From TrEMBL:
A biological process term (GO) from this entry: gamma-aminobutyric acid catabolic process
Ranges of residues in domain Aldehyde dehydrogenase: 35-501
Active site: 274
Enzyme Commission number(s): 1.2.1.16
Lineage: Eukaryota, Fungi, Fungi incertae sedis, Zoopagomycota, Kickxellomycotina
Catalytic activity entry: succinate semialdehyde + NADP(+) + H2O = succinate + NADPH + 2 H(+); succinate semialdehyde + NAD(+) + H2O = succinate + NADH + 2 H(+)
Pathway membership: Amino-acid degradation; 4-aminobutanoate degradation
UniProt GO MF annotations: succinate-semialdehyde dehydrogenase (NAD+) activity
PANTHER family, sorted: SUCCINATE-SEMIALDEHYDE DEHYDROGENASE, MITOCHONDRIAL
The name this protein goes by in its record: Succinate-semialdehyde dehydrogenase
Length: 505
């Protein structure tokens, strides 16, 4: 049965005009405390994925422009690192307060450039703000240690010092939270930063810079350099090879992460890489099926399946397979309404790019050709009054074990449900991929909960829950899902060097 569409009558320009604080809608880069256009005069368009209308034209900076931003960050570093942790905490707290106060405008802007439903966008704004608040508090807790020395007459202490200028490269799927999770930690540690937001979603990052300026964060401490898709490789190369940049943090695909890692090796930069995932979601025979189905709707279809930790491979025990599928399909049908993120009643927005939608179609086609059966969705909705990269939430059953979506990250609204017969089998299949970011499973067996959580080769596990992200939890993966952790007390450590000092007394 086709999904009902709630995308009628949306005008991107009219919705943009509803943003009350117009100063949040920026089209220039932010360098050294000034809003600047590209010296070349080049610009690129930002497009609403729900209408394909242009909503902004933004400065298209190049490698030379990035070099100037790095210079500005480097010039500001000495002063910023000299501020006390309490002073940095106070400025970050002001930034947090301004983000929260601007929640409605930021959410509308985010929906227009990213596509996610307005309520979901508002949730991201608060989620993103939570990292700024958290790291404001962590700034005052980045303490060193005192060690007992093996030699008489000496004392050993360690101190933690900021790494230096950090290059921050963020993705399009969480244009606010991915900036704040990285920048909050860096600024709290005493680093200065140059942010390159995704070319699809630069407006949210620029709005955050406007609020940071209002909060009193000094010129040059936070810089944002926008660039088009064509300019991205050169801009990324400048951040990874410029010797003044001592740290690079990137969230994106594994292939790009490997490329950046190779480039950064030339100057031995510190790296944080949060890369691709292929999360298993396992429903054992003793699971609470209603709870598992409820959480799977959220875990799979949030942001139209465009999250690195979303459930990508659903494994259901053969004894409850048919029952679970029925419950899950009923919930998806009842809860999800496809449409523009600003349309009344929308709970499921567009895919942000045509390339992403085409990938979903390709994986679906290959799965069906191999014998999988579509029981819900499976097409681009018809009858839309607006254009856009829409694709229905899609559920597939009887999925063969060797289809591409079993080993490739989908990053879209395809939900393949595989069956399994034993715990050993499903652990082996869950761990059979090269990546290991997140995993989920449902079981009432306490012993199994510990056993499976420890056996899954991932950086994060949800046991009887599909919601695992928060500012207090270390976020990151293993294997080819990257290195380092973001959020939590470990997140600030990624931007600090430990220096050992030996005193002779």
């Amino acid at each position: 049965m086709p999904f009902q569409v709630s995308a009628m009558g949306i005008s991107s320009a009219a919705e943009l005009a509803k943003i009350g604080d117009r100063a949040l809608v920026r089209s220039e880069a932010y360098v050294g405390g000034r809003w600047v256009g590209a010296p070349s005069g080049k610009t690129f368009d930002v497009v609403d994925p729900g209408t394909l209308d242009r909503i902004a034209t933004v400065a298209d900076m190049d490698a030379d422009d990035v070099r100037r931003a790095v210079d500005a960050a480097h010039d500001a570093f000495a002063g910023w690192r000299a501020t006390t942790a309490k002073q940095r905490a106070g400025l970050l707290r002001k930034w947090f307060d301004l983000i929260v106060a601007s929640k409605d405008d930021l959410a509308r802007l985010l929906t227009l450039e990213c596509g996610k439903p307005l309520g979901e966008a508002a949730g991201e704004v608060l989620y993103g703000a939570s990292f700024v608040e958290w790291f404001a508090e962590e700034a005052k807790r980045a303490d060193g240690d005192v060690f007992q020395s093996p030699a008489a007459g000496t004392r050993i202490v360690t101190i933690k010092q900021p790494v230096g200028v950090a290059g921050i490269i963020t993705p399009y799927n969480f244009p606010i939270a991915m900036v704040t999770r990285k920048v909050g930690a860096a600024l709290a540690a005493g680093c200065t930063v140059v942010v390159r937001p995704a070319h699809e979603t630069p407006l949210s990052a620029l709005a955050l810079c406007e609020l940071a300026e209002r909060a009193g964060i000094p010129p040059g401490v936070l810089n944002a350099v926008t660039c088009s898709a064509d300019g991205t490789p050169a801009v990324g190369r400048e951040l990874t090879t410029n010797p003044l940049v001592r740290k690079v943090s990137f969230t994106g695909s594994t292939p790009v992460g490997k490329l950046l890692m190779g480039q950064a090796a030339s100057t031995m930069k510190r790296l944080s890489l949060e890369l691709g995932g292929n999360a298993p979601f396992i429903v054992f025979e003793d699971a609470d099926l209603d709870a598992a189905a409820e959480q799977l709707v959220f875990c799979k279809f949030r942001n139209s399946g465009q999250t690195c930790i979303c459930a990508n491979r659903i494994f259901v025990h053969e004894s409850v397979y048919a029952d679970f599928v029925d419950r899950f399909v009923a919930l998806v049908t009842a809860k999800l309404r496809v449409g523009h993120g600003l349309a009344e009643g929308t709970t499921f927005g567009p895919i942000i790019t045509e390339r992403g939608a085409a990938k979903v179609e390709d994986q679906l086609r290959r799965a069906v050709a191999a014998g999988a059966r579509v029981v819900l969705g499976g097409r681009r909705p018809e009858g839309l009054a607006v254009r856009g990269h829409f694709f229905e939430p899609t559920v597939l059953v009887d999925v063969p074990a060797d289809v591409p979506m079993s080993c490739e990250e989908t990053f879209g609204p395809l939900c393949p449900i595989f069956s399994f017969s034993s715990e050993d089998e499903v652990i082996r299949r869950a761990n059979s991929v090269d990546v290991g970011l997140a995993g989920y499973f449902y079981s009432r067996d306490v012993a199994r909960a510990f056993r499976v959580a420890e056996a899954l080769e991932v950086g994060m596990v949800g046991v009887n829950t599909g919601a695992i992200g928060s500012e207090v939890m270390p976020f990151g993966g293993v294997k080819e899902s990257g290195m380092g952790r973001e959020g939590s007390r470990y997140g600030i450590a990624e931007y600090l060097n430990i220096k050992s000092v030996v005193f002779s007394i």
